[in-house]
Amino acid sequence: MRMIEIDYEARPPIDAYGGGGFRIAGEKRLGSLLHLPSGLSTWSVAAPSEATAEAFAAVLAEAGEIDVLLVGMGPDIAPLPRGAREAFEAAALGVETMSTAAACRTFNVLLAEDRRVAAALIAV
């Protein structure tokens, strides 16, 4: 089998999650996280009920650069609040909600495929 090394350039994969944060490019980041085309930033959302349209303002500002947003809702799957769903529909942005663990794994796969993916991840 031939192995091909992937160059992630400025979009590093998620190395680890848990313990209330993430490890990305060898750096520990505590708390929830946005992994957008423009880079990494902290996210003030700590529970699925806090994932309002306003909480996704940074994501919506970059909607033209994103084909799919993965939302890690914590340890379990939870639906997005209605206002957030409506905001994503208005922006024609595809959104998939799942557990944070599944979102991290899926993000890495799509990133390796050079897809226009972003993630909003509630820390676990």
Automatic annotation (TrEMBL):
The protein's name: Uncharacterized conserved protein, contains Mth938-like domain
Organism this protein belongs to: Albimonas pacifica
